[in-house]
């Protein structure tokens, strides 16, 4: 089975079953084969998503929503509690919340709210025992060397290590707990089925640029390339904290190698009741469409940025034109926090081969 254009998988039917002994796929990576002898089976549809009747009832479009308390009180105390807990759970790994498990802490309660919101129209077709939310937090201090979140594809990291294949969540999400730091940049391009598939020479005609706003929730197709490069951070955010809660939605499939947050550490976190009034709302926020490279009057100024990424961080080079960003005060005065980017003519974004690193282990994106 070969990867087709745009991330579709060429096959005689609309879906294919993949096994660890399938001779058409590598079962080892730089880190070596798993050696566990364990088998697995996952069925992907023609779009490279984990298959199921529920996929027709999910919204894979990039969307912006907001958390707000039911009683219309201030959002600030809720976010303060979540930021405090984020500092206690930032351990460079993700955790699993099964769909049929009652949340044990405030962060799990928010993850459950996100899962429930995005799956509400498909719940009758979902196996809740095999579905759930993968969640983790990111903390970055603006101006520090490690502020950048490199471009990457969300995936089952263990399957990459043990079988060399890409299996993605159905929906990826970012919830901003502070209003500081680099914007999230999403590019509508996908990886191949095999982790080693060549994704160079692919062009991208659409993307999204989302600036952090406390309480803002960004959801998008779990197959898309995304990151948060620090060179796009507004100058006024220097030394401030960028805090986000990441929740990936997996249906009828549990990513390997992730577990519940340790029970012995739950008591140190806020209880679910601390955020019981918080719920996701669609407040009508619409991304401002911006076309780069359009001929004629009103051409938007832009800069072409280059970002290396890949298994060890350097194999691919993303070249992407992005608008010249003004201060966040300017964004607010213009009434937008999210840009729907369209790349036209000479302004298309592209992924190109980059000089590979001579040696080194694959880097995981936490």
From TrEMBL:
Compositionally biased intervals (Low complexity): 29-38
Q: Positions of the region Disordered? A: 1-38
Enumerate composition-biased segments (Basic and acidic residues): 18-28
From which domain of life does this come?
Eukaryota
Protein name listed in UniProt: Uncharacterized protein
